[in-house]
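Researcher: Here's my situation. A collaborator sent me these components and asked whether they could plausibly form a single complex. I don't have experimental data yet, so a predicted model of the whole assembly would be a useful starting point for our discussion.
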Amino acid sequence: MAYFLFRRTLGFVLTLLAVSVVVFAVMNVLPGDPALTILGMDASEDALAALREQLGLNAPLVTRYVSWVWNALQGDFGISHSFRVPVSELISERLPMTISLAVAGMLVTLVLALSLGITAAAQHGRAGDWGVMFLSQLGIAVPAFWLSILLVMLFAVKLRWLPPGGFAGWDDPVAALRSLILPTVALALVQSAVLARVTRSSALEVMRQDFVRTARASGLSHRRILWRHVLPNALVPIVTIVGMQFAALVTGTIVIENVFYLPGLGRLIFQSIANRDLPTVQALVMLFAAIVVTANFVVDLLYVVIDPRLKARA
Amino acid sequence: MIELSNLSVHFGHAAALRDANLVIERGDRLGVVGESGSGKTLLALCLMGMAPDSARLTGQLSIDGQDMARAAERDWQRLRSRWVAMVFQEPMAALNPLRRVGDTVIEPMLLHDGLTRRAARDRALSLFEEVGIPDPDRRLRQFPHEMSGGQRQRVLIALALACNPMLLIADEPTTALDANVALRITDLLQRLAREREMALVFISHDLAAVARATEDIVVMYAGDMVERGRTAAVLGAPVHPYTKGLLGARPDVGVAGRNADGKRRRLPTIPGSVPPLQGLPEGCRFAGRCPVELPQCATQRPAFTQTEVARGAACHLLTEARHD
């Protein structure tokens, strides 16, 4: 068990390190001179040279990489070229928005997908099953941004129940919550469609196993068998997909935040790319990658929590 | 207590169980024997209300005076564990792998008997002792993968006994176990039935185990009950050609593997196998494999003929013999 933890943690750290190398390398071989971006086309050669020196751009790549990582570990991602404030400040302002969206999207996805998937499995081959399968097929086929627009047209424009976009800040929690509902639903529906299918097929597999018959022979109700015996045993493939989906939700916020004008990391990365704001883009890409790697790491640990047999083997 | 009269189970047009008649009283120990496909397990599942969804039941199945042949799942849920309980064939797969065995065993107690967790745990402890699991306190907290096959089968027996059922059905409970473990499980089931005055239906193709554990026996072939009586009487002096064949097909440890002329002795077998449901003969279902077949066997179904009190068989030979 300790060895397993050690191996996984080591793998996690090494992956993050590899990601940082790739991110740094990609960002620094891109054409374009940051000094030129900051000072503009009319800047004098002397001024540009001075700025390059000040930004440390003349140092060798390896030195620059090491100092980037070293500073990043201490929460210093440099100064944003376009906003002229520390990147860490930009991130900490916007992180709550993106994380709330992703977490809320994940929760809605879990509730929807597990209940629909289990219902479909219980109704295998009957109307409920077909209904869920049809809806999930639809959900998988519809792109999130298009679904967002449809949701806005129905709930914001026509029914006027919810705001069409924008965000007034966390000071008014009710208003904040209301502006998050549509983006959350738009994010969650597509993911639920995928997860509901995984849940259904995994549950169907488990329902064929002998211990389900034992549970039934003990006089347990269908509902209890499904939720207390079948679902836990169906969780391993479900958790695998959930890990991938959390990553997809975090990156999915890039599209959703832009559709709904929400001040989050997704919108920030979009703006920073448009502004050629290298330190910001670099920090954000690294952050998104770190979230994805962390999600996978957590999933690996969850397997052991779910299945005691893996603990014995690990 | 439990009575089947003319209970049949149809899949489409084919009857996988035909006109089963059976009375099980408190304390009865009944063996059910027959080849694979003889309908033994289907009979057991009927007694649990767990016949497949596609099965159509006709006739009567009464438990405690209630007719359950067409009862709803919900009504069956109330009877399982408290009236009827079952131990299955494959102990390795029959326990939820993610649950501590103690939690599995106490679950029906919490649900059906309304016990508190503490009371249920105490009962589980004494059940584990009763079924012969050493160090029950520690075992309760183990997962199935931490136990041997024999231990798991004992856990499943404890689970089946959780709510003190009137009838325990054991469907080939020893098939997946080592011979000496199998013997001990057989004796355990027999002892439990006697001590608790509980009825036991012991399904097996191991005739020695059935002889050890039961007092009465039903021999099944292709969905028919072809012979029945006291276990000792039926196994000692079988009447039906199929029962004779089953007994003849037993490897006999006392007999040398070679004949006097040095040739390898072949184990006698019943030629052929149980025909598929769709291809059953019209008359006696054993026709075609029977060594002493009469002309009418292929077309006429033999009636069940009682030869003594609680003893009889369904075979044309019996009625022929009377006419002579």
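Model: Some features of this prediction you could bring to your collaborator: Chain B has a mean pLDDT of 88. The CA atoms of residues 68 and 101 of chain B lie 31 Å apart.
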